[in-house]
Specification:
about 190 residues; alpha/beta; Uracil-DNA Glycosylase, subunit E; six-stranded mixed beta sheet; binds uracil
């Protein structure tokens, strides 16, 4: 399957009830041969309205965080979410919704074949790294999953709620930059 075929199919998805309340499905954004992939939880209100991940206040903060280590959604990374449709009132996606949706993310990963996957927040880390992932004690650590390097950062929304977490995230970003230079140095050669 090509990216275009996958995107067309995902945008028509009716595998769970979130399709009934979405304005737009949020497939993903970025460079479709990037070596570094970021994965959030699911679209919020602004993302649902615009059809693009991380475009609200949290998204603006994410872009600032990315810039610190010379990453940019238009240049050298790909960004997607665990669920493609907004859960009503921004509640956490249900287990059943995650299970219904995860195939789309797996298909995106099969096309992208990232060397590094960065989970944004606990939910993505629990789905992609391990079910008992503890974001407060395990953020910034690297985990090998089938030969791919995974890590998790605090979710930008958590940083907006509690700015005292920002210094830890700065350290995590610098470790991520070092890991990219080790495993995916081409990331920094793209213009
Ligand atoms: N939060 C997420 O986890 N993903 C988005 O796309 C926006 C906000």
């Amino acid at each position: 399957m090509t990216w275009e075929e996958l995107e067309r199919a995902a945008k028509r998805c009716t595998r769970c009830a979130l399709c009934e309340t979405r304005t737009n499905p949020v497939f993903g954004v970025g460079v479709r041969d990037a070596e570094v992939m970021f994965v959030g939880e699911g679209p919020g209100e602004n993302e649902d309205l615009q059809g693009e991940p991380f475009v609200g206040r949290g998204g603006q903060l994410l872009d600032v965080m990315l810039k610190i280590i010379d990453l940019d959604r238009t240049r050298n990374i790909y960004i997607a979410n665990i669920v493609k449709c907004r859960p009503p009132k921004n509640r956490d996606p249900l287990g059943t919704e995650q299970e219904a949706c995860i195939g789309w993310l797996r298909a995106q990963m099969d096309l992208l074949r990232p060397k590094i996957v960065v989970c944004l927040g606990r939910i993505a880390a629990q789905v992609l790294i391990k079910p008992d992932f503890k974001i407060t004690s395990e953020h910034g650590k690297f985990f090998d999953v089938n030969g791919v390097s995974y890590t998790a950062l605090y979710h930008p929304a958590a940083l907006l709620r509690d700015p005292r977490k920002k210094p830890d995230t700065f350290v995590d970003l610098k470790s991520l930059q070092a890991k990219i230079l080790e495993l995916a140095p081409g990331t920094y050669g793209r213009s």
